[in-house]
Amino acid sequence: MTVLFINGSPRQHGNTAALGERFLHDIPHDTLNLGDYHLNFVQDFRDTDHPQMDATDDYEQLMKTFAAADEIILGTPVYWYAMTGQLKVFMDRWFDSYTNDFDFSHKRVYLLVVGADQPQTKALGITQAVQHSCEWLQMHFEGTATVTADGPDDVRNMADFPSSFWQLGSRLRTRVI
Ligand SMILES: Cc1cc2nc3c(=O)[nH]c(=O)nc-3n(C[C@H](O)[C@H](O)[C@H](O)COP(=O)(O)O)c2cc1C
Question: Of the N and C termini of the chain, which has fewer Cβ atoms inside 10 Å?
């Protein structure tokens, strides 16, 4: 079982990164910081002769790592009550892979969300977007752990986590340990 953490925050050592590391502290995993990669906005080529792909950026490289993983942990801070642009652009590009018969099925997706302003209630749209996208792509959505934090070391110094964090962690551990 290969475990992949995808950090959608531009802060490489911020709260989302720390949440991912604490969530996966005893589980071997790879990490992709989306901010390290060049990703173009998705194009919609459906009404043209152009193939639904864009080989001018790092998307295919990212998807090689994605393809090798069974357990995918998506992490994002809340930006304007939604996921970051980094994660949204990456997920938008899944349309290229979907169009080209990439096999998403059998992958399991776990969502980590960090926000400052009542993210448990105000950032529910992130879970909805990821859950419905997983359903469309036949991936298994395993759930969300949402944490309230703002300063860059808040999660690193957090003494305890909400129950959703432990429940989601247990789900992952039944798969990989
Ligand atoms: C551009 C921007 C927009 C933000 N919008 C929200 C928001 O709408 N709701 C919220 O709860 N927090 C918001 N925040 C706060 C971040 O979610 C919070 O600081 C988070 O802990 C950052 O995680 P990171 O360290 O992984 O980047 C925003 C932060 C930034 C920089």
Answer: C
Q: Kindly give the pairing relationship between strand 140-148 and strand 3-7.
A: unpaired
176 CA from centroid of ligand 1 (Å) = 31
Q: Which one, of 163, 124, 9, lies nearest residue 76 by Cα?
A: 9
**Residues 6+ positions from 160 with CB-CB distance below 8 Å:** none
Helix axes 15-23, 163-176, angle to 10 degrees: 50
Q: Can you tell me the mean pLDDT for 99-106?
A: 96
Q: Could you report the per-residue pLDDT of 137-176, keeping only the tens digit for each?
A: 999 999 999 999 999 999 999 999 999 999 999 999 999 9
pLDDT band for position 38 (50/70/90)?
Answer: very high
User: How far are the Cα atoms of 42, 48, 78, 85 from residue 39, in angstroms, in the given order?
Assistant: 9, 22, 20, 11
Domain spans in the chain, listed from the N-terminal domain onward: 3-176
| Cβ atoms of 83 and 129 closer than 8 Å | yes
Site residues for ligand 1, CB cut-off 6 Å: 9, 11, 14-16, 77-81, 114-117, 119, 149-150, 152
* Average pLDDT value for residue range 81-85: 98
